[in-house]
């Protein structure tokens, strides 16, 4: 029987491997003409076995023939009669590596936003909110693509939505003892959201719209990829870029909290807007929609 710990450990190992593959791809595609892959092995007479968890493991199938040191090759082959043995090309002793100008951090690392100051919150509560946010993103995507009526089985408790939420939250990893409270909380949030005119406007039909749109572009010399939660063109021809946030706040001043969140995520929206403007020259507006208070905030960019 596979335990939860073993299952989660396997997921983490798979995630690490996918990240190594991504890093290997980024590194390999930097080459302009030639790509040299070098890995240190053991005995040259035995097949090369890359160390588990290394980048060499990603390219392991390429290391089919071990490379012998030049001196060893010279001893084994010996000089041809009447000729001086050819010397292998080696780097001079004063060689210094070029300081390559491109940044070595990934787009994923650049996407990370600074966290709020540490709050006295339990780990399970933070994790629960994150999973609720993931499910709400999925529900918003479903509504935006199929419409409110078609999405009813997923958003109305009477249509069996609670059972679907329970199953999905379990798949995402929420502990069974937290499911009932999380689902009840989710139902209250969704009730407020569905009654909010701004939410219905954002998710409603438009002349052109997209949901969970993957967008690729360049930032300087870096190729980046982002995902936009909601993008649509309104009746006036304005393109709206909306990003969803959980927006949960237990303090006394929710408006001040939303203002801080607006400032916190403004650079992210500015980045998305720059990528969009590469192919869209028309008017563009951006905003944040907060799930927990069911509030839309228009964000003015600099």
From TrEMBL:
Coiled coil: none annotated. GO terms for molecular function: helicase activity. Pfam families: PDDEXK_1. InterPro entries: P-loop_NTPase, PDDEXK-like_dom_sf, PDDEXK_AddAB-type, Restrct_endonuc-II-like. Keywords: ATP-binding, Helicase, Hydrolase, Nucleotide-binding. Residues 129-284 form the PD-(D/E)XK endonuclease-like domain. This is UvrD/REP helicase. It comes from mine drainage metagenome.
């Amino acid at each position: 029987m596979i335990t939860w710990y073993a299952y989660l450990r396997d997921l983490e190992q798979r995630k690490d491997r996918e990240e190594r593959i991504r890093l290997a791809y980024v590194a390999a595609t930097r080459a302009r003409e030639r790509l040299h892959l070098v890995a240190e092995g053991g005995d040259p007479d035995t097949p090369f076995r890359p160390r588990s968890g290394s980048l060499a493991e990603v390219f392991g199938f390429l290391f089919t023939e071990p490379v012998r040191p030049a001196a060893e090759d010279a001893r084994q082959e010996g000089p041809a009669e009447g000729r001086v043995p050819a010397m292998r090309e080696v780097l001079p002793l004063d060689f210094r590596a070029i300081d390559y100008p491109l940044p070595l951090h990934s787009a994923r690392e650049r996407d990370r936003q600074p966290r709020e100051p540490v709050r006295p919150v339990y780990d399970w509560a933070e994790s629960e909110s994150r999973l609720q946010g993931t499910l709400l993103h999925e529900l918003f995507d479903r509504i935006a693509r199929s419409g409110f009526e078609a999405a009813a089985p997923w958003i109305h408790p009477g249509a069996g939505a609670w059972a679907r939420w329970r199953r999905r939250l379990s798949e995402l990893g929420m502990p069974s003892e937290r499911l009932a409270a999380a689902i009840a909380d989710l139902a209250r949030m969704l009730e407020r959201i569905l009654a909010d005119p701004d939410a219905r406007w954002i998710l409603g039909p438009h002349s052109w719209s997209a949901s969970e749109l993957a967008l690729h572009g360049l930032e300087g010399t870096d190729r980046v990829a982002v995902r936009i939660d909601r993008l649509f063109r309104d009746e006036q021809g304005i393109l709206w870029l909306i990003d969803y946030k959980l927006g949960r706040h237990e303090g006394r001043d929710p408006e001040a909290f939303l203002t801080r969140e607006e400032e916190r995520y403004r650079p992210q929206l500015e980045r998305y807007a720059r990528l969009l403007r590469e192919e869209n020259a028309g008017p563009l507006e951006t905003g944040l929609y907060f799930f927990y208070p069911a509030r839309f905030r228009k964000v003015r960019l600099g």
